[in-house]
Specification:
Largest sheet: 5 strands, mixed
Strand order of the largest sheet: 2-4-5-7-6
Number of strands: 12
Structural class: alpha/beta
Radius of gyration: 66 Å
Helix content: 55-70%
Distance between the termini: 136 Å
Strand content: 5-15%
Shape: rod-shaped
Length: about 675
């Protein structure tokens, strides 16, 4: 019956039913206020049982005390007790139906006043039975029992417990003191001890109740936190599941995209590979086409120049000599134009590579003067070449052919546009170091001049700077653009300075070239003009094997060599050359590169395999104009390279250089 007075300590979730919501304190309260509200709630929760007990006890006392107390007093006291018990029961019902109609303190005050009313009623019962000594012990025990039973019911509110028990105990002590006998005094002492014990028990019970309420509150808080954490954990688990599903879906999408990307990359790789193969094939086809075109264009020009050279050597009539010189001049101009077109095509296709050989700068300048002296005389122009003293013995490493081409083009243009005045060529060395030399070349002339706004275009475009000039100054105008590209390939600079007022122009360029690591001179022998005489004096009767398939070239080359006192054996193709080289001993072999049955490169490789031909000089003779042809000839085992058309002085000088070298 009284077990419900103590709150149950557990960690389960709070009851959310409607009845529990009516009895529980508001959730807005916190800390001690919440515990106080639960104490009041517990007080009212135990109120029903307490009120029923009071009503039953009052009825029992009325029945038991029927003979000792007058009826009017008994019924008056019963009515008094019924009013108090009914008031408390009404408060319990009222609070249950309207828990928010008043604060917890006000509800506690109301219940305490009703409980004090009952305490006064029990005191009146003691006072009313004080005259009957026989019944006083029974009354005392009954009242003490009621007070003892009130402790667990009212312990949640000690003030109500005090108002319920103290009036009855005080009335009982006073009644016993008035009796005055020793037994009554002893009972007074016992009643006092019982009261103290009762109050102490109430205090202990109240402390236990408070501690239980606090623990319950803590457990509910922990349970709430655990429930919240559990909900959070559930949310996290759900999020993790969702993320895992999303990740699996994303991985599936990524796998599909990766597979698609790999397929696309593989397709693009195949397309790029095919494109690269097509580009390489096109490049090789273009190179072959350029080589074939160059060869087919240069071959008839070489024949014309060679035959003109032979005719000029035999001519005695002045008019005939002049006509042959003019024909050779125009043929050389056409050959230069063909070379420029081929070179420009190579540069545009990025196929042109520069040679990297050792040369002497002074020899290059001497060749330039010898090459352009005749053209200057024809144009009645004074050509002056000024070179620094260090230029004569300056040995560098680079492409002397392209460097000479730049100087020849700039000087040739100056001679062509000079209007019968003068042209100055300056070659000097600028910055020097132990590893490299900065070469500066300038060509100055007084001619048609270059307007300031046209100076840039004349170096990069085709055509004359002044397009209004008559075609007296004819030419394809590839030269300056070619020079600009070649200087760029050498990592140099080129420019023009002009004074239109006095028609003076200066074309200049600078390149930095490494120094040559060789100190000895290249095999070259005497000046080319004296090479024929040197061959005649030093090597008369030496046998030369000429491998050449063109009859005209055979005639020209035979005439040049026999005129220098040499003996010539002719092989019309590569197989014949290989057979003749194995059958007889030759001092030097002139090998055409393009021949039927077996080309010159393959024939040279085969000849080098012969025991007695490992040291015999082999000189390539070809009309091909590509810079890579020289490297291919040297790689095949040849020693030198002579380009067609054959110039007697160049051919004799080359043969003399290799015949002068010891064979061992």
């Amino acid at each position: 019956m009284y077990v419900s007075c103590l709150p149950t300590t557990h960690c389960s979730r709070p009851d959310t039913s409607a009845e529990s919501a009516c009895r529980s304190p508001p959730a807005a309260l916190a800390g001690d206020e919440r515990i106080e509200a639960e104490r009041i709630d517990l007080l009212f929760r135990n109120g029903r049982a307490s009120d029923l007990f009071v009503l039953v006890a009052a009825l029992l006392f009325v029945v038991l005390l029927e003979a000792e107390i007058a009826p009017e007093i008994r019924f008056a006291w019963l009515a008094f007790m019924l009013i108090g018990g009914g008031a408390r029961l009404a408060l319990v019902v009222w609070r249950q139906r309207s828990p928010d109609s008043a604060s917890s303190a006000r509800w506690a005050l109301r219940y305490t006043l009703a409980t004090a009313w009952l305490g006064v009623g029990w005191a009146c019962l003691i006072i009313g039975t004080a005259g009957d000594l026989a019944l006083s012990p029974l009354t005392i025990l009954a009242v003490l029992g009621v007070c003892a039973l009130a402790v667990p019911l009212l312990a949640s509110h000690r003030f109500a417990l005090y108002l319920h028990t103290l009036p009855a105990l005080a009335a009982m002590a006073c009644s016993l003191l008035l009796a005055g006998d020793p037994a009554s005094l002893l009972l007074v002492v016992l009643v006092a001890l019982f009261g103290l014990l009762l109050l102490h028990s109430g205090a202990i019970f109240n402390a236990l109740l408070l501690n239980s309420l606090r623990q319950r509150r803590e457990h509910e808080t922990m349970a709430g936190e655990l429930n919240a954490q559990r909900d959070i954990a559930k949310d996290l688990a759900r999020q993790l599941r969702d993320e895992a599903e999303q990740r699996r879906a994303a991985e599936g999408v990524l796998a599909a995209q990766r597979a698609n990307l790999e397929a696309v990359v593989a397709q693009h790789t195949r397309e790029l590979t095919l494109s690269k193969e097509f580009a390489e094939a096109a490049r090789r086809a273009q190179s072959r086409l350029l080589a074939d075109m160059s060869y087919e264009l240069r071959r008839p020009m070489n024949d014309i120049l060679s035959m003109s050279e032979l005719a000029l050597c035999r001519a005695t009539d002045a008019a005939q000599i002049e006509e042959l010189n003019e024909a050779m001049h125009e043929s050389r101009h056409l050959l230069e134009l063909i070379d420029d077109i081929v070179d420009w095509s190579q540069i545009e296709a990025e196929h042109l590579t520069l040679a990297n050989v050792d040369f002497r700068l002074g020899e290059l300048v001497e060749q330039l003067g010898a090459l352009l002296a005749a053209r200057a005389r024809e144009n009645r122009v004074v050509l002056r070449i000024d070179a620094d003293p260090v230029v004569s013995d300056c040995r560098l490493r680079g492409d002397p052919q392209r460097l000479g081409q730049i100087l020849s083009t700039l000087t040739g243009n100056a001679v062509r546009f000079s209007r019968h005045r003068s042209v100055s060529v300056g070659v000097g060395v600028g910055e020097e170091s132990a590893q490299s030399v900065r070469l500066r070349c300038a060509v100055a002339d007084v001619g048609i001049g270059v307007p300031l706004d046209e100076s840039g275009r004349c170096l990069t475009g085709f055509g004359q700077a002044n397009a209004s000039l008559p075609r007296r100054y004819h030419g394809a105008e590839l030269g300056l653009a070619m020079c600009t590209r070649l200087v760029g390939l050498m990592n140099g600079e080129i420019g023009v300075a002009s004074r239109p007022d006095d028609e003076a122009s200066i074309f200049w360029f600078t390149v930095r070239l490494p120094r040559s690591v060789q100190t000895a001179s290249e095999p070259g022998g005497p000046v080319r003009a004296l090479a024929r005489d040197a061959l005649m004096a030093q090597h008369r009767g030496r046998v030369i094997l000429l491998a050449e398939d063109e009859p005209l070239n055979q005639i020209v080359c035979r005439e040049i060599l026999e005129d220098a006192g040499l003996s010539v054996a002719i092989a019309p193709d590569g197989e014949s050359a290989l057979r003749m080289a194995g059958a007889a001993k030759y001092d030097l072999i002139l090998m055409d590169v393009r021949m039927p049955k077996l080309d010159g490169l393959a024939a040279t490789r085969a000849i080098r395999q012969l025991p007695a031909m490992a040291r015999v000089p082999i000189v390539a003779v070809t009309a091909s104009a590509f810079a890579g042809d020289r490297q291919r000839c040297l790689a095949a085992g040849m020693n030198d390279f002579v380009a067609k058309p054959l110039v007697p002085g160049v051919l004799c000088a080359t043969i003399l250089a290799w015949l002068d070298r010891p064979c061992g």
